[in-house]
Amino acid sequence: MKGSKPQLIAEGKRIDGRGPADLRQIRMEVGVLKNADGSAIVEIGNTKVLAAVYGPREVVPRHEEQVDRAIIRCRYRMLSFSTMGERKSPAPSRREIELSKVIREALEPAIISSQFPRTAIDIFVEVLNADGGTRTAGITAASLALADAGIPMIDLVAAVAVGKVDGVIVLDLNEIEDMYGEADMPVAAMPSMGKITMIQLNGVLTPEEFRYALRLALDGINKIYSLQKETLKKKFVEVEE
User: Fold this and answer.
1) Is pTM, for the whole model, over 0.85?
2) Domain 19-240 class?
3) pLDDT tens digits, residue range 10-21?
């Protein structure tokens, strides 16, 4: 039961003070784990996600290897202290298993896996704090971690969710908006390639609302993509210095 629905938009402002088309404050950093081949942390509002990449490396078990490409494996996990209320069980939930697959499929089109046949590239996404948009933050962080690991990619992948809250199409839903909104649509894309790699819709949008929501999502993705590039550039400039 969701309980009684709070008013989430009043006088054009959302419950956290943002306008309908505003992203939350975003912070990104790469190279945060010394023992990983690549790593990144992404904070979007109060949502905080850590991604680590290992590989290309030997495939275990060997029967899973592919002769023409690397296999991409992904595990998404919400840490037991990441949510409010009851502590989450450490065992993988059905949702975590599903989102592991969703994140992998959103990233695979960007990875040039043919350069590393008979190997595995492992992606780990850990949600440190959850306040809505964990799958999209996970995709954004994992893409940065892949780039940090030097994995060849045709483009970075950035992601954000749009939705309908109190009848208004809004960008970058937080947890309470996701919980009480009428629709939620996570989108991932490779902006410089002009390709969408993931789109999901939970709820109902009219065709006009869908088209507007998609444009809003892509606008947000372009802003996140710019931050990704700035974050990577900053690291490599620091290395050169």
Assistant:
1) yes
2) alpha beta
3) 888 999 999 999
